[in-house]
Every structure is written in structure tokens, then in C-alpha cells.
Specification:
Length: about 130
């Protein structure tokens, strides 16, 4: 098993370190992926590096997946618009702060926007 030791000052690396090039010239079809395990273990070896080939989807998107993606795109656009609308910012912040301490309340403003705009999207498209 390989062991990864990083230079002093770097405690861990997580994610893709290199991806395959989109151009065919000088490209490798593999990805260098690093992971950092944070769970409690008896070993101090918590960093791993893998060389793997990216997986490409072979089946077409289902209708349900299209609906989910369209909802995500629509709600994200609503959040972008609402968060920059100066006429709503003050009331949105007051509403967010009022519900923050309630059970099942949103802890971040972004989470609150996703909940509110998601509910608006669902009402408009049901």
C-alpha cells in the first residue's frame, strides 16, 4: 500500500489533482484523485491517492432526472434574482432571523433561500 506524505504546511489534499485533458494531444485518460479520511482510526495513514479512469454515463437521462435538473436551474435563478433584489433584502433577512431558532429552521441565509424559492417553484409548477 502506498503512503502519501505531504510537504510541511500541507496537512491534507482532497479532490482531483489532475483531470484528463479535453484535447487529444498529450492527454492521459486517467484522473489523479486524492482523499483525506477524517474518521477516527487506529492508523495515522489517512491520506490516499488513486489513479482512476473517469466514468461516463451510458444511459440517457430519464424524465424524472430532467425534471430535477430543470427545478434546480429554475430555483437557482430565482435565488440569484431574489438575493439581489433590494426591495426584498430587508424583509428576507428579518424573516430568516425570526425562523432561525425555531425547530427545523434554516441555519444559513442560503439554505433559507433554497427552501423559500423551492416552495415557490413547486407552487408555480404543480
Amino acid at each position: 500500500m502506498a503512503k502519501v506524505i505531504y510537504d510541511p504546511g500541507i496537512s491534507s489534499v482532497s479532490g482531483a489533482l489532475s483531470k484528463p485533458s479535453k484535447s487529444g494531444q498529450h492527454s492521459c485518460e486517467k484522473m489523479l484523485l486524492a482523499t483525506h479520511r477524517t474518521a477516527a482510526t487506529t492508523s495515522s495513514d489517512c491520506n490516499r491517492i488513486y489513479l482512476r479512469k473517469p466514468v461516463t454515463r451510458t444511459s440517457p437521462l430519464t424524465q424524472r432526472e430532467h425534471q430535477i435538473r430543470n427545478r434546480f436551474i429554475g430555483v437557482a435563478a430565482m435565488i440569484q434574482e431574489r438575493s439581489h433584489d433590494l426591495s426584498k433584502i430587508t424583509t428576507d433577512q428579518q424573516t430568516f432571523i425570526a425562523q432561525k431558532t425555531e425547530p427545523n429552521g434554516c441555519k444559513t441565509m442560503k439554505q433559507w433561500y433554497w427552501r423559500v424559492c423551492g416552495q415557490e417553484w413547486d407552487q408555480q409548477h404543480s
